[in-house]
Amino acid sequence: MNYAPLHHFLQLSDWPAEKLHATLDLAAKLKSELLATGRNAPLLAGKTLAMIFEKPSLRTRVSFSVAVTQLGGEALVLRNDEVGLDTREPTEDVARVLAGMVDGLVIRTFEQGRAEKLAAFSSPPAAVRAIPVVNGLTDLCHPCQALADVLTLREHFGALKGRTLAFIGDGNNVARSLAVACGRFEMRFVLATPTAYALPGGDIDRIMSQVPGMDFQTTSDPVEAVRQADCIVTDTWVSMGQEAEKAQRLSDFHGYRVDEQLMAHAPSHAVVLHCLPAYRGFEISASLLESPRSLVFAEAHNRLHAQKAILAMLMG
Length: 316
What we know:
Layout: H1 17-37, E1 48-53, H2 59-70, E2 74-79, H3 80-83, H4 91-99, E3 104-108, H5 112-121, E4 133-137, H6 143-157, E5 164-168, H7 173-184, E6 188-192, H8 201-210, E7 216-219, H9 222-226, E8 231-234, H10 246-252, H11 260-263, E9 271-274, H12 286-289, H13 296-315
Parallel strand pairs: 1-2, 1-3, 3-4, 5-6, 5-8, 6-7, 8-9
Helix pairs in contact: 1-13, 2-13, 4-5, 6-7, 6-13, 7-8
């Protein structure tokens, strides 16, 4: 699907490192401004952001809604049963209609191709005017989450270059986006996962072509993965749409829980991230999630500030 990458935010690899660094700088500035004064400059005054959700959402919906409001604009939530992409009407028609009425669009859906089609048809010559499309999550990647994670680590550690991030669990959309983020910000990425759940070779080849030269390692041993890690990240082992596989997945991921026992093998300064929702006692222990080593809720709050910067870069 042809779309102009710099005019949208569909995956982290669409934006060069310089633009991602600038986005993090802007996120930090906007966060500091909000904390200091209780408000942000109305960078999006008069602008409307439409949001389509084909998957359930807490952080994505609230953070984008609050982000555009705090920047002086308005948010419009469109339920899946109201829009009916490719059921009630074709995705390309929805894109062209919205391009004439709103100033930006967030989509949270299953197929990456659907987000790409919205982007392609919300730009000229298909549409009368161009509006940016932001990927709020697809099965392929979760770029907004990865950017918030990197913002959280930069706040905590300062410089990111040379840091090691270990992802423990399923080779999923979050893992893919974090791998690209590590490449863009010159960090080392280690994925520890059962062999059956590792990223396919084609995915790794694609990531390496997007961020050539990055240090990308895979292992089936969580202990090995965390030995030099500055940050340990995990995610649910059973994502939306995988409920029928729950029993098998819980069995297959035995030994991959991020808990105090695993953290004992990591450096003493290592911290923990989780994109939430977290299933305590499964992929992460309750006590670790609530411990001083956990930045999970700071990470969740940074979704607001990272996405505020994304919107300002695209719509401001």
